[in-house]
Each structure stands twice: as C-alpha cells, then as structure tokens.
User: Fold this.
Amino acid sequence: MDIINTDVLIIGSGAAGLSASVYAARSGQKVLVIDKGAVGKSGSTVGAVQIASLGEWSLNGDSEETYFKDIEESGRGLSDPVLAKILAGEITERINELIAWGLKLDVDEKKEVAVFSTAGHSISRSVSARKGKTGLGILQTFLKKARSLKDNLNTWSDVITLELLTSSERVTGALVFDLTETKLSIIHAKTVILATGGMGQLYPVTSNPVQATGDGFSLGLGAGAALKDMEQVQFYPVSLKAPQSVAGFCISFYHYSKLYNKDGHRFMADYEPETLENTTRDKLSLAMASEVGQGRGTENGAVFMDVTHTTDRVKSDFPHEYEMCVDRGVDLRSNRAEVGPAAHFIMGGIQIDGNGASSVPGLYVTGETAGGLHGGNRLGNNALSECLVFGARAGQAAASESAERENRLFPSADVSEWLQKLTGDSPVRGKKGVSPYDIKRKIQSVMDEGAGVVRSDKGLHQARKKLEEIDVLLKEAKAPSLKPYSREVIDFIESRHMVRTAKAIVEAAMHRTESRGAHYNKDHPGLETKPYHTVVTYQDERFICLRQPLKGDR
Amino acid sequence: MSVIQVKIERDHYETSFFEVAYSTDMTVLNIIEEIYRHHDPAIAYRFSCRTGLCATCMMMINGKPGLSCMAMGKPGEDGYLTLAPLPKGHTIRDLVKEV
Ligand SMILES: Cc1cc2nc3c(=O)[nH]c(=O)nc-3n(C[C@H](O)[C@H](O)[C@H](O)COP(=O)(O)OP(=O)(O)OC[C@H]3O[C@@H](n4cnc5c(N)ncnc54)[C@H](O)[C@@H]3O)c2cc1C
Ligand code: FES
Assistant:
C-alpha cells in the first residue's frame, strides 16, 4: 500500500475545500487536496447561482448587524450566533480577495455591481459572477490562485476517501482508494479538513450532483466527531419530477406560477391564502408534500405547475431553465409541469467552532459538511458565503496547527475490512448479493418514505429498522468490479457512507419531538418551549443521540 | 418501451455493442446508466451535475463532442448510438479521461 505524507490534507474540492486550500498553502504548509471526482468540478458549488454579500455595492441600510440578524431570524433558534457573527463580519474581505484574484462580479445596465433580492434577506444583498454561473466562477478563481501556490499545494482527482485514520484520539490522515490505479493508499497528515459537501443523494429526487452522498458526515462519525441538528434537511420546493432525466432540476420562477393538485385545485389558497405560491421554501415544500401525502398528487407523486399565463416573463427572466424544460419535452407554453420538493441542502452537520475545528483533535470541517451556522433554515445564497469565510478560517487554523506539530502520528490503521472488500481475497467476492446500485436506490426510498418533508414517529421508526436491514444487505453485497473507474466500485463505497449518514439523520429526527425549521413531524406539529440541538455520535458501532441545550441555557 | 442499439468504442480499439431498453425522453447519460445497471457493471463513465454545467460528462456522441447529460439519445446515420471518449488526452478507461 502506498503511503503519502502531507501537512494539511483537504478532502473535497468545492468552494469550501478550495478556499481552505489556498489559505492553508499561503502559510507555507504542504497542502494536498483530494476529490473523488474531477477537482473543482464535482460538487454542489458548480450549480450555485448567487452569493449573499456585503461590500461597496451594498444598499443603504445594509450592515453586518442586519445581515447577522437575518441569519439569526431565519435559523429558527438553532443558528450559532458565534458563526453568524463571523460570517457577517468577514464576507466583505473574502469577496474582495476573490475579486483581487480575478473574479468579476456581474453588473447592471448602469455598469454597477448588480445586487439581487433573495427571500428571507431583509434587504437585497446577493451578487453574482459569470452571468449567474457564480459557483463555477468562484471555483475557477480559486483554481487559478491554487496554481500560483503549486510549490505547496497539490491536487489529486479521482481518489475516494474510505475512512479517517486516528491515533490516540487524534485524526492523523485518511485511507483512500485511487479509482484510476484501483489501489488503496494511506495519507498521513498533521491536520485534516473535511469539505465533502452535502447529502442530497440520500433522497430519490435531489438538486445535488451525483457525488453528494454524505460521505463527510459518515467519515466524521467514524472518527468520533459529533453531528449537530442532522434532522434539518432543506427541500427545494419546486423542482421537476418528470421526465426522469431532469428530476430534481430546480425551478427558480415558482413565484410566478400557479400550483394545482390532481383535482385541479390551486391548493396554496388553503395553506397560504395571502402569499399563495410566493412564500418561503419550507412552507411551500410542506404544502406540496401534504397534498401528495393525502392522495392528491399525480402518479409520479407530484403536483402540477402552470405558467401558461406568464410564459414570456419566464422565458425572458430565466432563459436557461425555460430552455431546459422545453428541451426535455415540457413545453411550458401549453403544458403544465410535474413538480415536487427535491433534497437540496443540509443545515445540520459536524459541530465546529469559529475556526472550523471539530471536537476531534486534528479534524477541521468546512462548507456544507459543517453544521450550526444556518440552524433550522438556510437563507438563500448563504451557502457560498459560508464556504468562503469558513473555508479560509479552517485553512488558516489547520495550517497553523500543523506548523506547530513536529511529527505526524502514525495511525494504527485497521484497514483489513476495506482490504478484504476491495481486494481479490475478499470472502464476499463472487458471492451473489444485491448490487451497490440497488442498495443506493433502497436507501433513497427509505429516506423518502420515512425522513422526507413530512415525517411521523412511525415513519421514522420504520426508516430506522429498514436501514438496519440495508446494513445486513451491505455486508452480503456483491463485490464490485475493480476495473479502473468502474461505476460499481464508486457506488459500493458510497453506499456505505450513505447508510451511516442516513442513520444519523433518522436518529436526530427521532430525538426532535417538535416541528422546528425544516424538520416537520406531524405527530408533534408544534414547537417545544425550550429550543435544543440534537447531537449524534457513533461509538462501538452504535449511534448515540442526545439533546443539547442552547449555549447560555442550562 | 423500445430498444436502441448502442456502440461504445472502448480502450485498445475494442468495441462493445449493447441493445438497451429505450424511451425517447432518455439522455445519452440515461442510456449509459441503463447499460451500467443491466449490461455491464464495470463500465466507466464520468458525470456530476446532470444539468449541463460541470462539463465532466463530455464524450464523443455519434462522432461529435457533446455533454452526455444534455444530449438526447438518438441513433446516428448507421442506426447506432455511437459513444467514444474524447480524442485528446489520456483515457483512463472506457469513456473516462484523465483530468
Ligand atoms: C443546484 C444547486 C444550486 C445552488 N444554488 C446556490 C446559490 O445560488 N447560492 C448559494 O449560496 N448556494 C447554492 N447552493 C448550495 C451550495 O452550492 C452548496 O451548499 C455549496 O456549494 C457546498 O460547497 P462545499 O464546498 O461545501 O461542497 P461541494 O461543492 O459539494 O464539494 C464537495 C466535494 O467533495 C467531494 N467529495 C465528497 N465525498 C468525498 C470523498 N469521500 N472523498 C473525496 N472527495 C469527496 C465531491 O466530489 C465534491 O467535489 C446550491 C446547490 C445546488 C445543488
Ligand atoms: S453532468 Fe455536468 S455537464 Fe453533464
């Protein structure tokens, strides 16, 4: 097995991982960034359209204080004020730095930076680059900067992380599988930063890329880290449900639309008579899922979106989305589209402090894999800002910790299980079992039924039981083909991470016996008086979930 | 559901033929996924966003470079949907290029 040494290991190359890499490498430490896909092209960041900001372009009346208040308000009591304050305080500096490195913000007709309004922000403060391909623009700016630091900064595509390695309770590196060479390697590092993004692929309909299988949460659990508020999964309300090839594609123009159930009733009149379709994501998702849950959805479990009264506006304001619909046979001029909520983002994640440090020494976490900033509801366009600010902080903090440590610790890695599974002499090889692809599909349907938009006590119990059954299936699973980059070996590894992360979400959801933020349990529709966090850890192959009072409460 | 004949030009000048269950709303990527599920679990292909943004799913489709997640699966003039890796650079295997 190959052994690779570095000072800082960064797992994941979205906005968060790349931000961390640049700031860590500037300090002179050796940095290695790995990604299971193509570096800088495989995460949710690629699809992001706008970023919330403060800067010279800010409107009169905007300030750190109002931005902070908006985040707090949106978080339904669960947002960590320490993190929110840092975000509001440092976003200007981070964006200005990106601009200095070459990012060009989009401008309006007056050639001034275009500032957009976003639901939930009390004032317009979103900006964009590359005509709305903001995420891509940010990634390319970081990659360019990374190339200028190449003496200290290396990237490695197509290598998937199996486990974090620990030694005397400290994270000391990672066990990885090189998809090209089809071999296991050990990476020794003084500090590790997890930046593996989200988990939308735990659900059958998602806006997330295929890589968003929740690996980071599972890796963190395996190393002893605590996961906070994992039940807080945000669903994007209006996404296409059919045809299958674009299922999960987000529709931004839903506030122009009329939504109907299968009986032709415009149901938002029953839920939000004042605002109708122009309401917040959580309310819309809940209404749509309730209609389908009560048997008023289509065969595909969807509702209908109608924009025939305003197609011209849709076409001129959202040309890319309009074309995509038409291309795939959804002619919005004459037809209604089948739409439903798609798994979009997780507010919960690994518990961190202001520098991205987890509770496990040597392990830092940033971006969507970290929890706490957004609480029970993420404000639109705050995910990218989070990646910039906390990516930079985690990169700097991990690098200075690495600089203080003389030696790498050598983990007593027990890699035998993975070796057995991923090498020729594994006893499971050749044994017939369910394919890794089918296991993934099973996990998705369990999560959809038991831990989707509308949850119940019974549904969650069943989900827990079914995930146990899937665990058994996994143990007997068909061994994957080990040819270079075989899709099957990727599914095989990801399905293991998916089950562990899915279980954490279900445990957390069972322990929140109220409906708060994105978590709605119909058996507990109200709020409990004292807010609390759910905290999940994993010890000796068992999940432990506790309620943690908010800071300052006792 | 009908079928589509698919030809994949793989490494070492090896060509594989597949007869794949097909409906007209399938993209090239959907067809490859069908091959993965029902014909060849070891097939190698790369993709991420499924919405035409990341460009990692780019390959030769009926002789022209295209995004497999955006192109609808249609047979070429010879009656086959022909897929091959992009000509430039090192091919890891099947349809996957080194990045
Ligand atoms: C369609 C869409 C639109 C969005 N629009 C917006 C928007 O307009 N504004 C906004 O602020 N937010 C938006 N979001 C949310 C935002 O894009 C994400 O939350 C954010 O980009 C996450 O960045 P990240 O760096 O944490 O993770 P990602 O960008 O997801 O990157 C994670 C990386 O880690 C890699 N990885 C994962 N597991 C492993 C492993 N085991 N081993 C090695 N590598 C691994 C992945 O391949 C991936 O490249 C959107 C999300 C989506 C899906
Ligand atoms: S999968 Fe991203 S462009 Fe096709």
Q: What stands out?
A: DSSP finds one helix and seven strands in chain B. Chain B touches chain A through 32 residues (CB under 8 Å). The longest strand of chain B covers residues 2-9. Chain B has one domain: 2-97.
